[in-house]
Amino acid sequence: EKGGFEHFMLKEIFEQPQTIFDSFRGRLDAEQHRITLSGLDAIQDRLLAARRIIIVACGTSWHAGLLAEYLIEELCRINVEVEYASEFRYRNPIVGPEDVIIAVSQSGETADTLVALENAKQQGATIFGVVNVVGSSIARMADAGAYTHAGPEIGVASTKAFTAQVIVLQLFALKLALLKGTISNDRFSKLVEGLHAVPSQVEWILTNELENIKAIAAKYKDASDFLYLGRGYNFPIALEGALKLKEISYIHAEGYPAAEMKHGPIALVDETLPVVFVATKDPYYDKIISNMQEIKARKGRLIAVVSEGDEVGATLAEDVMVVPEVDEIIAPLLSVIPLQLLSYYIGIERGVDVDKPRNLAKSVTVE
Ligand code: F6R
């Protein structure tokens, strides 16, 4: 059942070229430059009139939601809020018929997310579900939606469900941008072609970086803390990298916006602290390089996810994990892969039961 892999988590990491493809099968036409999302069509009028979009989720799904905030605001020019379901539901939020809520959930059963949505629906909001489990409670209560098609995820730590959520949210943002006229045909076509290439690029990382990442894991396995830093579209990936490490290795880790580190966390940096930069080539590249220099000057141990061919980043860091260079909007789908593998192998090095880490449940149906 683990298909020759030692753990479900590793199997699910390796399934991603396929699950990403499955998530855009029938939706993304890279030749005609077309995106079909019938769930979006169903609430198209509400979306075009929406005062704002509110994304509600927990955990890893919340990280996919944070990415979607950046995407939808940039591409569709609609105001987006991202909410932790547990906070949103208890604080008596201002919600009404002009709001569209996107619910992101692998299981479709997370109690806080479900109740937050029920409350918002009662106040007249439209609910769009980005859910993996077909027929789950959240999928049934949503007005419309798009399934993620990642297949059953058994490992407690979410991997392939996350990349599938990101794909669906990218398709959603691109399609909505086209309908709103906020994206040029040229940029749209380039991004559609870019998405189409992702499965083979993920495959490339899994093939070329595996042994390197295993060695990095063995080298840093005894660290007691990790810091993960990123900017822009790579900031949610820094958060996700840190969460994955906590869950699977029991090492304390924090994700932070790279520039925000100067406002506190930099005090933690010394020669024992591994600092993982998500530093792929994007418009903030020079800024992140200078953040790396700041950490290096304080003797932090620099590990970086860099774009293929980036000599500057590669020279600056003590250890690097390489990913193909792509548009910044697509980059998170690639930069998360080495971080999933790093957590997995550090967990293995430390003898953690990675498929069932202590204290965690696959779906949190208590509040
Ligand atoms: C992390 C993880 C959790 C879930 C969270 C939400 O690896 O699996 O943080 O992402 O419990 O679960 P869903 O997406 O089922 O609502």
UniProtKB/TrEMBL annotation:
The keyword NADP does not apply. It comes from the Bacteria. Keywords: Aminotransferase, Cytoplasm, Glutamine amidotransferase, Repeat, Transferase. It is an enzyme of class 2 (transferase). It catalyses: D-fructose 6-phosphate + L-glutamine = D-glucosamine 6-phosphate + L-glutamate. Residues 43-182, 216-357 form the SIS domain. Its main location: cytoplasm. The active site is at K362 (for fru-6p isomerization activity). Its EC number is 2.6.1.16. Homodimer. Catalyzes the first step in hexosamine metabolism, converting fructose-6P into glucosamine-6P using glutamine as a nitrogen source. This is Glutamine--fructose-6-phosphate aminotransferase [isomerizing]. The chain holds residues 247 to 613 of 613 of the full protein.
